[in-house]
Design brief:
The protein is mainly α. It has two domains: 32-144; 147-175. The protein has helices at residues 6-12, 24-45, 48-67, 82-144, 148-181. The relative contact order is 0.04. Residues 104-131 form a coiled coil. The chain crosses the membrane at residues 40-64, 76-101. Keywords: Coiled coil, Membrane, Transmembrane, Transmembrane helix.
Length: 184
């Protein structure tokens, strides 16, 4: 039996298992993961705890390298604490882009939220206009309907007409009966 060539095997396997190619979903998830990471760092740098911790770290650094044992000092006060300056500069150079990335992500979320709010407002406006038209249509149809008072007045007039007819019929019958009694 002939052995299947490599292209046949690749067609039989699921797409994700064919090769080292990264799908667009994986790329988006990776970018999102990095974005969440930068947001977490930016959020952390904006807390009072971080500022207090960084201040305590700098104070400890300065105190140790100023008053600590001479053989243990690793950053000289005489040349302006070069290592501390380098560390703080490095921290600032990474913090600024991370904060900007976090702001960009927040701007994107705000933009999406504004668009959703706009669509929701349009739907609410359309619903409100529809309901207003329905209320107007109901008012018009109700104004065409007979009210209780109108129906009562119509029934009273019908009763009066029936009473008049009845009394006219009774009178005519009485007159006819009286005329019959007077005949020989």
């Amino acid at each position: 039996m002939a052995r299947a060539n490599k292209s046949d095997i690749r067609l039989d396997s699921p797409r994700g298992l064919r090769g080292p190619a990264i799908s667009a979903r994986d790329k988006a998830a990776s970018r999102d993961r990095f974005g969440r990471f930068t947001e977490a760092i930016a959020r952390g740098m904006g807390t009072p705890g971080f500022l207090v911790g960084l201040s305590l770290f700098c104070l400890f650094w300065l105190a140790f390298n100023t008053w600590g044992p001479e053989e243990w000092r690793f950053d000289s006060a005489a040349i302006g604490f070069t290592a501390l300056t380098l560390i703080l500069s490095l921290q600032a150079s990474y913090a600024a882009p991370m904060i900007l990335l976090a702001q960009n992500r927040q701007d994107d979320r705000d933009r999406v939220q504004i668009e959703q709010d706009r669509q929701r407002a349009e739907r609410n406006l359309a619903d409100t206009e529809y309901l207003a038209r329905e209320v107007v249509a109901l008012r018009l149809s109700i104004s065409d309907m007979a009210s209780k008072d109108f129906i009562r007045s119509e029934l009273r007039s019908l009763l009066e007409q029936l009473d008049e007819r009845e009394s006219a019929a009774a009178k005519a019958e009485y007159e006819n009966g009286a005329a019959d009694v007077g005949k020989p």
